[in-house]
Amino acid sequence: MTVKIKDVAKTANVSVATVSRVINAFGNVKPETEKKVLEAIKELNYFPNHSAKSLRTNSSDGIGVVISHDLDYFISFPYFVEFIHGMSVVLSDLNYHLVISTAKKNGINPYLEVAKKGIVDGMIIFDVKDGDERIFSLKKCGIPFVVIGRPKDVGDYIFVDTDNESGGMLATQHLFDVGCKKILFINGPKGHAATRFRLNGYIKAHKNMGIRYDEKLVKYVEKNSDRENGYAITRESLASMDFDGIFVSGDLMATGAIAAIEESGLKVGKDIPIVGFDDVPLASMVNPSLTTVKQPIHDVGKTAASILINMLNGKKVESQILSVSLVKRASTFRK
Fold first, then answer.
1. Are 184 and 235 in contact (CB under 8 A)?
2. CA distance 209 to 51
């Protein structure tokens, strides 16, 4: 049987209004009365109804994160874990809780259900594509939201992103600097903003060096930027061996590329230098350690949460692009 607020009131021998004041920290409750209410809540294992609270206070104290894959994939994705931790640093201090909404299932968009039921006050959209329908849907709902990335064909919106184009240039230029002439680029899925910007950086680095850009050296994963896809694309590309360096748009994929190269009898660094992207903890632990473009992932989460909270408080906000940097490790040492 569901425990209701009136059950707590009866057990504590107080009014429903008094229980409500204790739950919502409104004050004007004697310490001994508050103690009785809290003991009753514990005894009955009562959990306040956040939807009901939102009707009274116009706030649910919830922030939603909208993801496009199933949760199992994202939990195994180091970028997402670090991003969520950055958000939590901001939100926990303000007593907000996180609600993660996953991909569309059985024709239902969970994030829209969450928004319509008042479970969250605002949302952060993760892993966006150009023309992303989630942005249009949330605009119609009228709920405040922040986008992680810069998709096109969705109108105006507030976003937090890293300088993916600069990162693409840094990675490619470093490979040129260590002597590479033909650089295989294993990019993310087509239609994603980060994929587009990193490709722009790759192309600009070629132009800066006066080297012809060969689109045949650019490969795209179909969906997941994971180790398996990095391994498969590298192994397939090794059959023609028409490259002497690899830029991989994600550290997890880069670990797969390293495995494929070592398995072929070649040496990472000496024969084929590799640069990744993200600088997740795994990048420094693989052998050889991975040269990579460092994204301030933790700061992306913090910044997105801070901007959304400011939006909810009626403050003026602006989109933010955070800088990236190159971390040099053994995978590009040509010894």
1. no
2. 58
Residue with tokens 């670990």: 255
Q: Count of alpha carbons within 13 Å of 104, Cβ hemisphere only?
A: 7
Q: Which residue has the tokens 């800088």?
A: 323
DSSP bridge partners of 218: 185
pLDDT digits (tens, 9 = 90+) for 2-50: 677 788 889 999 987 788 777 655 556 788 888 888 888 878 876 555 4
pTM listed for this prediction? 0.79
**Cβ–Cβ < 8 Å for 152, 130:** yes
Domains (range + CATH), the chain: 5-48 (1.10.260.40), 62-162+298-322 (3.40.50.2300), 164-295+326-332 (3.40.50.2300)
